[in-house]
Amino acid sequence: MKNQNDTYTPILVGIPTEPVGSIPRPRELQEALLSHEQGNLTAEELEPLFDEAVSETITRFEATGSPVVSDGEQAKSSFATYTLDGLDNIAPDGMIIPFEDGHIRRLPRLTKGPFKYGVYAGSYLPRAKKFAKRPVKQAVISVSAMSLLYPEDGVPDYSREHFLSDLVKEAVADIRSCFENGAYQVQIDFTEGRLAVKLDPSKQLLQQFLDLNNQVLSHFSEKEHQRIGIHTCPGGDHDSTHSADIDYGELIPMLLTLNAGNFYMQMAGEKNPEASLKIIGDHLRPNQRIYVGVIDVVNETVESAETVRDRVLQAAEYIPIDQLGTTDDCGFSPFSDDVATSRDTAFAKIKARIQGTKLAYNELISKM
Ligand SMILES: [Zn+2]
């Protein structure tokens, strides 16, 4: 069935700007999700609450002037674990990821094979497209993050090789499901790149992660690569990070060997963005667009449009304007229980990104 969204063609004037994705969930939804977890609310009873949260999120997104919107991941349990919803071969005691402020997130662990996703990200799109007038992007979790589910001591009768071969098929199907459901862009959340350098300074782990992602990307055409992007950040949870202490320059040259058309790169929160931008400029390949992070999601202060403009102008010194875009440094709430940032703050920051990007574009073309 066709609706207005399928025929919508965005007019590409100016510097493209896109969100990373997540928006804090409304309090009523948070409470309902908790009730559901405790067995006091059925999945069916959650549906109208998801509808309401997604509808309100998209209305507010469009009011910021954002040319591309997302559903704010209102129905995703987290950016990383939505794929596991409903599975019975997962235990909660997997790998631990420590954050700088001392809190941890624990990944689940695979207990038996074969491995299949419980949910594909494309399944979130029909609801979003019901409410959206603008193009909707959809995020998926990277195959490399999912690979961490496999425990070090193995799974009975299910080798790591067998798991990885099943996993790559599932990651490809996850991205396909987004295109089939009308995603404008698909963003692969690859937040473990910098963490990989922290865990293994020899960068062998990073190379393994990149190889897995390129294996998934090899299933898509050049044309589809232009609609696939990679998000990188040092983690963003409860206003804290997990790998910001690793020099960005250790990651960037290798990151840009991924065969994707777009890169959504955290930058506003960097201590020395200029050095990182220069490295991007030196390693950028044709047909790659860098969406530079101009909104610091860990800092609660709302940027002014002028601050955003200056960040864009600085990026434009190193990245050609036809390969430049802007984005937020990360999602505002990658895990559904993270309410460190308010919805009002998130949308005010997004509005500043849109306005500041416009200001920068006007200044750049006036000098051409
Ligand atoms: Zn992120």
TrEMBL record:
<protein>
    <submittedName>
        <fullName>MetE</fullName>
        <ecNumber>2.1.1.14</ecNumber>
    </submittedName>
</protein>
<dbReference type="GO" id="GO:0008270">
    <property type="term" value="F:zinc ion binding"/>
</dbReference>
<dbReference type="GO" id="GO:0003871">
    <property type="term" value="F:5-methyltetrahydropteroyltriglutamate-homocysteine S-methyltransferase activity"/>
</dbReference>
<dbReference type="Pfam" id="PF01717">
    <property type="entry name" value="Meth_synt_2"/>
</dbReference>
<dbReference type="GO" id="GO:0009086">
    <property type="term" value="P:methionine biosynthetic process"/>
</dbReference>
<feature type="domain" description="Cobalamin-independent methionine synthase MetE C-terminal/archaeal">
    <location>
        <begin position="16"/>
        <end position="333"/>
    </location>
</feature>
<keyword id="KW-0489">Methyltransferase</keyword>
<dbReference type="GO" id="GO:0032259">
    <property type="term" value="P:methylation"/>
</dbReference>
<dbReference type="InterPro" id="IPR002629">
    <property type="entry name" value="Met_Synth_C/arc"/>
</dbReference>
<keyword id="KW-0808">Transferase</keyword>
<dbReference type="InterPro" id="IPR038071">
    <property type="entry name" value="UROD/MetE-like_sf"/>
</dbReference>
